[in-house]
Amino acid sequence: MNLDTLKFDIVICGAGPAGSTCALALGVSGLKVALIDKDSFPREKVCGDAVAPYVKKVLNTIHPDYAKALDEFTLKEKVNRIRFVAPNKKKLDIQFADEGFISTRLNFDNFLFNLAAKLNNVQVFLNTTVKDVIRIDNGFHILSGNNISFETRMVIGCDGAHSVVNKKLTHTSMDLNHHSGAVRAYYKNVSGLAPGTFEFHFFKDLLPGYFWIFPLPDNTANVGLGLLSQNISNENTNLRNKMLHIIASEPQLKERFEKAEMISPVKGFGLPLGSRKVSMSGKGFMLCGDAASLVDPLSGEGIGEAIVSGRYAGWQAQDCFRKNDFSADCMKDYDEAVYKKFWQHHLNRYRIRKFINHRAWIINGLVNLAEKNKWFYRRLAKIMS
Ligand SMILES: Cc1cc2nc3c(=O)[nH]c(=O)nc-3n(C[C@H](O)[C@H](O)[C@H](O)COP(=O)(O)OP(=O)(O)OC[C@H]3O[C@@H](n4cnc5c(N)ncnc54)[C@H](O)[C@@H]3O)c2cc1C
Fold first, then answer.
1. Residue 345 lies in a domain
2. Is 371 within a domain?
3. Would you say residue 246 lies in a domain?
4. What CATH number should be reported for the domain holding residue 119?
5. What pLDDT is recorded for position 274?
6. Ligand 1 neighbours by CB, cut-off 6 Å
C-alpha cells in the first residue's frame, strides 16, 4: 500500500468551530496549513445550536470581514432573552443587551468552514480521519485513514470531545464529574415559542441539568436535555427516554408539543467540561475547544470557547514560528491565554452547578427573588450572560 506523505508547517485536526477559527487566525501568517476533517461539509453536529453574542467580536479581532460575513449570514434566529421555568413552574425572563443567535450546526459550521477553506495558505482535506499522531525528530507524523500521511512541525487538535490528538499526546482521562451528556432533536410547530427567546426548564430530578427549547428559523426548534455524566451514571438515566418522558408528561410542555412533529432522530453526544484544568499543550502541539475540555460547566456552551481557543492557538502558533521555538514552554503561553479568559468564569459556574445540584428550592427561590428585586435580577442577568 502506497502512502503519500504531505509536508505542512501546521496540521489542524478537525474543522469544527475551533479548527476553522484556528485556520482563520493563521490566514495571514504565510504558514502552510492543512485543515483535516473526518467528514465533509455541510455536516451535522449534535448540539443545542446556541451561539454566544461575543463570537462576532472574536471574529472581528481576526478580521472585520469575518464579523461582517457573520452579520450577513442569514440562516440564524437572533436571540436576546432567556426564559427560566423553575421547578415550581414560575417563569422568569431575562433580557440581554447583546444578541446571540441559534443556527443549526449544519449551517453555522459550514459557514465558518467555508471562510477558512477560501484561504490561500490553507489546504483542506475532507473525509480524512486522523488515526494516529506520532512524534518524530522535528515534529509529528499524522496518519489518516485514507492513505495520506502528513508530516508537520506543529499539530493543533481541534477534533472534538473524542479527540485522537488529545489521546495520543496527553494523559488526560475522562472524569464523570467534569463531563456531561446531552441529547437533542429538531421539532416543527412547537406552540408558544417566544421570539428571540432561549427556554431553560428546570425539574427537581434533572438538576443541575436542564431541558431546553431553542427556536430556529421556519418554526422549527432545537429541543434537548443535558445532565452531568456522574448523575447519568449514578441514576442510570437514559437521556433520550427522559427527554421524551418530560415532553409527554409535563402538563405545560405536553400541550405545547401536541401538534409538534419531531423532524430528526434524538441524538446524543458528550461534553468535556471546563471545570478542571487539563493539559492543553506540550512540545509542538496545542488542543482547542472540546479537545481541550473547555465547555461551560453550567450551561454546556462550548462553541464560543472553541472559537476563542482556536483563535488563540492560531496566534500562538505564529509566535512560535516567529521565534522558531516549539518547546512546551513556548506553547504554555497558549494555556495561559485560554485560562485567563475562561478559568475563573468556568470555576464560578462549576460552583453554582454544585450548589443547585438536586436543590429545586434554590431555583424556585432565585426566580422569586429576581422577580422582586431589581438588583438581584441584574446580578442574575450578569451571571447568565
Ligand atoms: C447535545 C449538546 C448540546 C450542546 N449545546 C450547545 C449550545 O447550545 N451552545 C454551545 O455553545 N455549545 C453547545 N454544545 C457544545 C458544543 O457542541 C461543543 O462545545 C462545540 O461543538 C466544540 O467545538 P469544537 O470545534 O471543539 O468541536 P466539534 O464541533 O466537535 O468539531 C470537531 C471536528 O473534528 C472532526 N473530527 C473528530 N475526530 C476527528 C478525527 N479523528 N479526524 C479528523 N477529524 C475529526 C469532526 O468531524 C468535527 O468536524 C452542546 C453539545 C451537545 C453534545
1. yes
2. no
3. no
4. 3.50.50.60
5. 97
6. 13-19, 36-39, 45-50, 129-130, 158-160, 164, 182-184, 224, 269, 271, 289-291, 295, 300-304, 306
Domain that holds residue 36: 4-76+100-175+272-352
Per residue in 251-305, pLDDT tens?
999 999 999 999 999 999 999 999 999 999 999 999 999 999 999 999 999 999 9
pLDDT in tens, 74-86: 999 999 999 999 9
Whole-number Å distance, alpha carbon 22 to ligand 1 midpoint, is 14
Cell of 174: 475522562
d(CA 223, CA 187): 7
Query: pLDDT of 95-111, one tens digit each?
Result: 888 899 999 999 999 99
pTM for the full predicted model: 0.96
Q: Count structural domains, the chain.
A: 1
Neighbouring C-beta atoms of residue 277, cutoff 10 Å: 13
Q: Is residue 231 part of a domain?
A: no
